[in-house]
Specification:
This protein is an alpha/beta fold and about 325 residues long. It has three domains: about 110 residues, Cobalt-precorrin-4 Transmethylase, domain 1; about 80 residues, Rossmann fold (3-Layer(aba) Sandwich), CATH 3.40.50; about 80 residues, Cobalt-precorrin-4 Transmethylase, domain 1 (3-Layer(aba) Sandwich). It has eleven helices and twelve strands. The chain has a five-stranded parallel sheet, with helices on both faces. The longest helix has 17 residues. The chain is flat, with a radius of gyration of 22 Å. The site of iron/sulfur cluster has 15 residues, from helix 2, helix 5 and helix 9.
Length: about 325
């Protein structure tokens, strides 16, 4: 390093960056992206994708560059024989039904842990239980879960106030939840429901998934030491938005959500000595690296990773994408 570069480096104020672990991609997101990539490799472009495969613009644009075409509804897709992939958030039963009616080839990238909630909802319905679904209105996962059952079978409970006032029909009750909720808020909502409805059936295994739980635990672990936390994720990403809220509730004075490095103004860290970074389950690590690079422009950054759990879970691709690919035609 020459003297000028050394002097410049020395002039940068020190900043410790606590990287929460786990952060970023979960097994369901990884699988969903691979399904789109593998579908393009096998069937060629275009491969249609109903809804953002995961809630991240960078991921969506990378797949578009490979030949994916994103739509919100099946009726936007022409009858050209090309496949359609359903997003990781899951779809109402009416969507595969409509695809079959049009003889479309479809691939379901619904996360297996979302599908598990769908099956659980069906089981409760088969046992004549009305379902209280804890989740956020309008979110595609909630629309997908409610759409597993006939209208009127599920009542949405959005928060603690709704849990205090909900009046389900008489008879047996069960609750299920969205997979990406705040662990603490959900525990409070469940406690209210259980006190009001003592016979309430619960999921056999937690509906909030392992990735949501671990990312919230990791952000809590850095919150007390961080003067600011940057959550890399999209504003329409439920699990990312929850991470920002959890960070502040766990004692961090300020938590912000940014989509990628260029959206992050590093002067926001001026005067701070320690900041934290995490990423939602749909945010690739390259976007975390972009934020760290922005910080390095202004600070002498020391990275410390705080890991609260190791994740080894992976999900298999759908059977239709597992066999050998057709050999390339010889030219
Ligand atoms: O909004 P969200 O957190 O449900 O979805 P995102 O695409 O950000 O992350 C992956 C989570 C999924 C697919 C729901 F389980
Ligand atoms: Fe599946 Fe959880 Fe990831 Fe959603 S956040 S895709 S439920 S592993």
């Amino acid at each position: 390093m020459d003297q000028t570069a050394g002097a410049l480096l020395a002039a940068k104020p020190p900043l410790t960056v606590l990287l929460a672990g786990p952060r970023g991609f979960c097994a369901g997101v990884d699988r969903a992206i691979k399904i789109v990539e593998e579908a393009i490799a096998r069937f060629g472009a275009p491969v249609y994708v109903r809804h953002e495969i995961v809630h991240n613009r960078f991921v969506v644009e990378s797949l578009e560059a490979q030949g994916a075409v994103f739509v919100e509804e099946l009726d936007e897709i022409p009858d050209d024989g090309q496949p359609v992939v359903f997003s990781a958030h899951g779809v109402p039963k009416s969507v595969p039904e409509a695809a079959r009616a049009r003889q479309m080839l479809y691939l379901d990238a619904t996360c297996p842990l979302v599908s598990k909630v769908h099956r659980e909802a069906e089981r409760h319905h088969a046992n004549a239980r009305h379902i209280l679904l804890i989740g956020h209105a309008g979110h595609p996962e909630v629309i997908g879960t409610m759409g597993q059952l006939p209208p009127g079978s599920v009542t949405l409970v959005e928060d603690a106030d709704a849990a205090r006032s909900v009046s389900p029909p008489p008879g047996p009750l069960a609750f299920t939840t969205q997979t990406t909720l705040s662990v603490d808020d959900t525990a409070e909502i469940v406690a209210i429901l259980q006190s009001r409805f003592p016979g309430l059936s619960a999921p056999t295994k937690e509906d909030i998934c392992y990735a949501t739980t671990n990312r919230q635990a990791a952000v809590k672990a850095i919150a007390g030491r961080s003067e600011m936390i940057v959550v890399v994720g999209a504003p329409n990403s439920s699990n990312s938005v929850r991470l920002r809220e959890v960070a502040e509730r766990a004692g961090c004075p300020r938590a912000i959500l940014v989509q990628r490095g260029r959206d992050f103004d590093p002067t926001q860290a001026d005067g701070l000595r320690t900041i934290g970074i995490t990423a939602g389950a749909s945010a690739p690590e390259v976007l975390v690296e972009e934020v760290v690079s922005r910080l390095r422009e202004r600070f002498a950054v020391t990275i410390e990773e705080v890991i609260v759990a190791e994740e080894r879970i992976t999900f298999k691709l759908p059977a239709a994408l597992m066999g050998d690919r057709q050999p390339e035609p010889v030219r």
